[in-house]
Amino acid sequence: MQTEVKKSGMTHSIGELAKEFELKPGTVYGVLNELGIDHDGSQFEADSDAVELIRESLLEQAGSTEIVLKKGAVTPRTVVNALEVPQPDVQKTLMLKLKTPAQLTTTLKDEIVEKLVESFGYTVRWAEAPKPKPAVSLSAAHKKVSGEQPRPPVVTIMGHVDHGKTSLLDYIRKANVAGKEHGGITQHIGAYQVDLPEGKITFLDTPGHAAFTAMRARGAQVTDIAILVVAADDGIMPQTREAIQHIQNANVPMIVAVNKCDRAEANPDRVLQQLTEFNVIAESYGGQVQTYNVSALTGEGIPALLEGILLQAEIMELKADPKGDLKGSVVEAKMEKGRGPVATLLVMNGTLENGDSVVVGSTFGRIKAMTDYKADRLDAAGPATPVEILGLSDVPQAGDQIEFAKDERTAREIASGRSMNEREAALLPQRSRGMTLSDLRNRMQNDDLKELRLVVKADVQGSVEAVKGMLEKVRNEEVETKVILSGVGGITESDILLASAAEAICVGFNVKPEGKAKIEAERRKVEIRTYTIIYELIEDIEAAVKGMLEPKFEEQHLGTGEVRLKMQFGKKGIIAGCYITEGKITRNSQVRVRRARDLVYEGKVATLKHFKDDVREVTLGMECGITFDNWEAFQEGDIIEAFEMIQVNL
Ligand code: GDP
């Protein structure tokens, strides 16, 4: 049976959908266009089936920088809405960069639109002619948006130092990768792929959460599954805790590898028991988390672990379209003598081919050579394939996204637009991704429940627990605090990256930021607050939470006056000659004017004079001249009540 996408149904907001999927409204236009659903740039109508389909398609657009617009119908206002950029920025770019000043509603030439959009780091895809009116069928639409096939999972290994992350990665690589023909030679490119009879798995082989978080901070979530390695003889250690928090924060499914089970002192059951404290509940404890007892030394349990990964991947139904739009992220990158910038990319959708012109973050180039981790040359790389590429103009950063460009020249233009945007962003703190206590309020104004997220580091575990416990109690009816990561030790670069990704604030108790952390925090505008007295810390956060409240105002009575006469005052108009009978009236007062019982005016004082002088206030027993904002119809005997609105929840 075919379900039809009806045009009738509820009205939905494009802006809200865009926000939810972290896309620009212009990208949402593309999906709507693809499905033949009409919209007016901010809203569309659709029934629940259609909305489901739209949401599915939006999910596939993650990280997309493509904006879909209709040829010959784009005005500066369209671009402002599609990209959610400030209107003055659009007009400035038009005027200064493109030398095409235009009114907000002037239709722009298509080439200008392309350049304008590109200068904000996005590309235009022109909408195809609208689909035949009656609507598309669901199944047809499915075909259109997905030439999808299952893709291998991308796996990151995390855990405490010395618990065997590297050994595990090495064992898996040696046992499954290096075919005899390669004589066991592999190169470290930051990621590798194993090919098992049951399927492929891509491992990111920079263990630890620094790389993982660095990528997240740049908006790239490439990891599908995280393996938490815990040594069976050592149990949960500080970095294990941190890794758990990072994984839980990123909402990535976790599989636990209890390592070093070959050791006599190994006590895997104790590890599983300890994990329950962190809400990581093993299947054997009635939970959902797969756990495997392994040894990276003997290889025991590793085949089962790999099977478990594939099982988890199957549940997740990971899919990609090798013929679809190119999506991918930089895993690592460096400058190499004689080779120039070298970057490892993980293609997540589409296929990257030798000779392609690409934009990677704010760098660009033509792919001169691609190799895999076995140092084999490749002509093409499909989804979940890690490849090392040569040919970029500069070294990109981990987490930068890759996309096609028509040719090298276009690639250069897009990239230079991006680096300009990056420089501008660096100059404009309010547009950066980080968070400071003072800008929390603006950032969260539109959410119903507000959350102040915190990363907490302290000198000893006891203080971590104490600070965390106290902070989590700081809340009121509108704002909650949430400690997204806590741990022992100085504030590290990876803490800052997490804070940046999660828009959190870093709080240190008896610890300081490490050198690199400071630089990163400045760059990303993440606020670091350090304390040595716990109550100061709590007081500050309490203040921040209060500051995040919607301001609440209450009326406070100031005084009363009586209109004694109406006077002509110069050419300006008539003024009320008044006598203050109680309290005071100030220049900034709001007023109500009553005649007998009737309210005849409510508004503001416009001018307040004492004889000929403008004054700030007049008090009991004084005479004064008052004019009101937009109102002159006062009469002798009118009573003026002055009041002001004051914020009561400061
Ligand atoms: P990483 O810091 O987590 O990457 O840990 P490594 O892989 O460097 O391992 C730390 C140490 O533990 C090394 O000396 C390894 O040889 C040893 N090791 C790792 N896995 C095992 C294991 O399964 N059994 C035993 N007995 N030793 C292991």
Defining key terms:
650 residues, alpha+beta, six-stranded mixed β-sheet, 30% helix, 31% strand, disordered N terminus, binds guanosine-5'-diphosphate
Spatial sequence of strands, sheet with the most strands: 7-8-6-9-10-11
Contiguous runs where pLDDT drops below 50 for at least 5 residues: 1-7, 130-145, 424-433
Task: Give helix % range.
Answer: 25-40%
Identify the bound ligands. guanosine-5'-diphosphate
Characterize the biggest β-sheet. Answer: 6 strands, mixed
Q: Please, how many helices?
A: 18
- Terminus-to-terminus distance: 60 Å
Task: Please provide a written account of the structure.
- There is one protein chain.
- The protein has 650 residues and is of the alpha+beta class.
- The chain contains 18 helices and 32 strands.
- The strands form 8 sheets. A 6-stranded mixed beta sheet has the order 7-8-6-9-10-11, sandwiched between helices.
- Helix 15 links the parallel strand 21 (450-458) and strand 22.
- The longest helix is centred in the middle third of the chain and has 20 residues, at 408-427.
- It is globular.
- The two termini are 60 Å apart.
- The model is unreliable at 1-7, 130-145 and 424-433 (pLDDT under 50).
- Guanosine-5'-diphosphate (GDP) binds at residues 159, 161-167, 207, 259-260, 262-263, 295-297.
